[in-house]
Structures are given as C-alpha cells and as structure tokens.
Amino acid sequence: MPNCPICSKKFKDEEELNRHLREVHRDKVRLEKFEHPEHKK
Asked: What CA–CA distance (Å, rounded) separates 20 from 2?
C-alpha cells in the first residue's frame, strides 16, 4: 500500500497514488521536479 510522500495518505495501488499526486499536489510535484538537479538536463 503506497503512501503519498507529501501528505502521507494511504492508497491501495500506485495508480491511485499517481492520480492523487496529479490532482491534489500538482503544483508541489511540478516544483519538486524542477528543484532536483537530476531532473535538469
């Protein structure tokens, strides 16, 4: 059961977690990707 890394909510599978991240934490997820140097290419 994956947990959301941002709010710790539990999900029954990765698909639900990904949907939650896209819908609820859209801005945070986008920011985190830009802040991590491994994503800058």
From this structure: 11
